[in-house]
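note to self — DONT lose this again. spent like an hour looking for the file last time. sequence + predicted structure for the chain T wanted, 275 res
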Amino acid sequence: MKFSPDIQISKLNEAQLLLHHAVQFIAASGKYLLPEQEDDSHTNMSWDPANNIFYGGSINSRARVGLHIPLLSLKVTGPTGIELASFSLSGKTKQEGLLWLRQALQLKQIDTSALELKMHYEIPEHPTDDAKPFSEIDAAVLNELANHRTIADQVCNEVFTKHAKASPARTWPHHFDHGVYVPFKFDDNGDAIQSFSVGYAVADSVIEEPYFYVTQWKKEEEVEYSKAPELEYGEWLPETLKGAGLSLSDILKMDDQENQIQEFITKAVAFSKDA
């Protein structure tokens, strides 16, 4: 699979922000209906590449909340993935989506009296915050963003399968990034003292378009980025990212996206382990 050059990055960014707000229904379901986890993982979600759906965790082994990107629709499925209910967000407000979600989960005997959309973090503002409806997004843009997530999931899963201590690839609703965390050095108590993370991020203050990242962390000292290897594509951003970033613009210049993205990841991960 390849990233398409056919859609303007500004349109991708605009749609990505809308999706960031749409997945908060999944995050809220985790926050208010699942047992709290210290690392906030009860709010995160997995990506189903076969169906282009974000999924939250299983609620009381009865239901899962999802978001289908191509149709911009909320889903409630049974624990085995059978669809129980669907709700298109296009033209609907957040309050309408919340009301529907409460009712859909109640049909599975799930108590939703505590369910709301207020979260413990802030995300970039969007008109839907002010009771404006979710706008319709061009299908080609949504399909390409689903493609982004599938490629990102593939990249992250390749890292996951190579590292025994790695966390599963997940999307985190705060920054809407999809990543995998890999601790690889530990103290005598088994606590991590060195790690790296690999993932896909949406446009932010670091890079104003979608990008891949490989970041490094050491508990006791700073990473010496002066020793980092030269990258054919992407760049080291020690101050803003604490790692390496590979922008979509750089990816679209590649002759062989799959192998050259992998080369970026491999070089940055190797440096992470030697840092």
